[in-house]
Specification:
Blueprint lengths: L1 H15 L5 H13 L37 H4 L6 E5 L2 E3 L6 E3 L15 H9 L3 E6 L6 E8 L6 E3 L2 E6 L4 E8 L6 E3 L2 E6 L4 E8 L5 E11 L4 E8 L4 E10 L5 E10 L4 E10 L5 E10 L4 E10 L7 E10 L5 E5 L2 E3 L5 E9 L3 H9 L4 H17 L5 H14 L8
Parallel strand pairs: 1-5, 4-7, 5-8, 6-9, 7-10, 8-11, 9-12, 10-12, 11-13, 12-14, 13-15, 14-16, 15-17, 16-18, 17-19, 18-20, 18-21, 19-22
Antiparallel strand pairs: 1-2, 3-4
Helix pairs in contact: 2-4, 5-6, 6-7
Length: 411
């Protein structure tokens, strides 16, 4: 495959500028054996998406990342506590309460062999940002803003690792700003929550139809920790939100919610795994999709309960509004349980706007299009309101308000 030869050259060029890293070599060997997960057989994660376009563009890792600026007014965020990720390279200026972890003390939460995209990130990521948050940053907000600007087709492989000390509360806002750059983004964020820590993680994709964005979130929770993730994605060409949480301490709890829009011929994949590895853990998954035109969305989720993880409580739900005849949703919730004293529930739906409610609104003088948009907005707002940062919540609501009038309702 020609594109694999292209990435082999990128990898060789990277090794010339840094010491040989066995993890990078092993991860690239894994990627080079099969390439992107385009072959469908046996691959539940990607089998419903058409990834063939990734073979056709030879994305470059040779580009400038120094002269990019963030338009903070467009986001509504303060300029303080910002980490900018410029064309895939994180830039960090010293913040009180956040220290840099030496590379030799870093142990990834995930294995590169989980997925070909993760293996490519591991092998071609030029700079990891490894952070530890202590009590001096307790209760504060860390904003991570991803921006791109290049005339080349670029490959972005950022890696950010955050360890939160015990008894510390942190809000992490991740924002992807849309651009005209043609790119393949493979961003990875890893978060370790130590005992009795709390993380409120808000993720917003402001997408464009020139980008492919495969976003990976990996979380390791210790005893009495709490993690809340709320994600929002407007329509992009090809994207994924891949989440894996390990509940590894008693009384740890995670709350995962997300909303995704798909329009035109876009594709979006949500893949969520929560592992209950010890007793007395709790998880909640609640995702919603709004699909229009000829777009496609996939939701695959799994609740895994280890055999000794008694008293686990888990819920999983995926609800979808299909707004046009050409749109398609594939949803696959799942349970894998090896303990006998647990409460686990899952379910998924795909349907249209409720006809009786729509009829009622029309009898009150509201035209059909306006009534439909009002109902869709109410469906979306339930998730948007879960974003814990007020400024980012307003930004996501504006994205939703802007996309609603463009949705096609042709059922």
């Amino acid at each position: 495959m020609e594109y694999i030869k292209h990435y082999e050259k990128n990898f060789s060029d990277l090794l010339k500028t840094s010491d040989i890293d066995h993890a990078k070599q092993n991860s690239f060997d894994f990627f080079s054996k099969s390439g992107f997960p385009i072959k469908k057989k046996g691959d539940e994660r990607w089998k419903y998406l058409d990834l063939r376009s990734l073979e056709k563009t030879f994305y470059s890792t040779d580009y400038d990342n120094d002269n990019l600026t963030i338009n903070f007014d467009s986001i509504g965020l303060d300029k303080s506590n910002i980490i900018s990720v410029n064309n895939g390279v994180p830039k960090y200026e010293s913040l009180e309460g956040i220290e840099i972890i030496p590379n030799e003390l870093y142990t990834p939460i995930f294995s590169f062999s989980e997925d070909e995209f993760l293996s490519l990130n591991t092998s071609l990521s030029s700079k990891h940002l490894l952070l530890k948050v202590n009590s001096k940053f307790n209760g504060k907000v860390l904003n991570i803003v991803y921006i791109s600007d290049s005339e080349k087709e670029i490959l972005e492989c950022p890696r950010i690792f955050i360890e939160v000390e015990q008894n510390v509360e942190l809000t992490v806002n991740e924002i992807f700003i849309s651009s005209d750059a043609v790119n393949l983004k493979l961003p990875v964020i890893e978060i370790i929550l130590n005992e009795n820590s709390k993380v409120f993680h808000n993720l917003v994709f402001q997408s464009s139809f020139t980008e492919n964005n495969f976003k990976f979130t990996r979380v390791d929770q210790k005893e009495d920790s709490f993690y809340k993730l709320t994600s929002f994605s407007n329509s992009s060409l090809l994207a994924a939100n891949d989440i894996k949480v390990g509940l590894n301490g008693k009384n740890s709890e995670c709350d995962l919610k997300g909303l995704y829009f798909t329009t035109l011929n876009s594709q979006f994949n949500t893949h969520v795994v929560v592992e209950h590895n010890v007793p007395y853990t709790k998880s909640n998954q609640y995702f919603k999709g709004i699909l229009s035109d000829n777009s496609r969305a996939v939701f695959s989720g799994k609740i895994y309960v280890e055999k000794n993880a008694q008293k686990a409580y888990a819920e999983q739900k995926d609800l979808n509004l299909v707004m046009s005849k050409g749109a398609e949703i594939d949803t696959k919730p799942g349970l894998e349980i090896y303990a006998d004293d647990v409460e686990c529930y899952h379910g998924a739906t795909a349907g249209h706007v409720d006809e009786s409610t729509l009829y009622y609104m029309m009898t009150r003088g509201i035209d059909k299009k306006s009534a439909t948009q009002m109902l869709v907005n109410g469906f979306a707002t339930e998730i948007i309101n879960e974003i814990t940062d007020e400024k980012l919540r307003s930004f996501a609501q504006k994205q939703s308000d802007d996309i609603l009038p463009s949705l096609s309702f042709d059922l």
